Amino acid sequence: MAFGAALATVMVAAAAAAQTAPQTVEPLIPAQGTILDVSAEGRTTRVPDIATIRAGVVSQAPTAAAALADNAQRMARVLAALKRGGIAARDIATANVGLSPQYRYTDGQPPALTGYQATNTVSVRFRDVAKAGGVLDTLVAQGANQIDGPNLSIDKPDAALDEARTDAVKQARTRADLYAAAAGMKVVRVISIAEAGQNAGGPTPPVLFRVQRAADAQTSIAPGEQDVTVTLSVRFLLQ
Prior knowledge:
Blueprint: H1 2-20, E1 34-46, E2 50-61, H2 64-84, E3 92-104, E4 112-126, H3 129-141, E5 146-153, H4 158-182, E6 187-199, E7 209-210, E8 220-221, E9 226-238
Helix pairs in contact: 2-3
């Protein structure tokens, strides 16, 4: 009976320890072979098909009401010009509206109010980059006196990203074969693949916008090409 009681006590203690002991999971590392981690960047190119430009109207007047009224009239002409240029309403969004007093500063005297400045800026997305320059010229003719851009980007980059992913896997395998050969080993298989980052090709800094100064010249936009990249981390097993 004493032996049975002692055995029961040991079993209860073991069960309690099993419930309270922390559970751990061993990392999935093969029993034989060498692990190689490779980081590779895949790349492809696309011609940007979206141009985003900020077009604004700045008005100044002695009173706030006059500045806002003039600004509203000019912006109405700008929006009408965009509509005539074929820009859809979904591609036009108000980016900023502001009203601020203007002062004249003189040494030894308090600032003197000289009037008010009203601003209204819209963000315009052009889905036909080739026509963007002509629309910009029309906007300036209709009263837009502040233009920034364009920022060029790719509208649907998924296919390009998949190409870059495929290239990244090839780059990783080529590099793994190189390391394995240098170490006198061979690549057995891929253990894991993780995507570490991507660049879908935009938007880019507005460096391609140029205005010709000749009287009969038109504003032109050169889209060029953009890189689409994907970075992968690939783990290989070498033997």
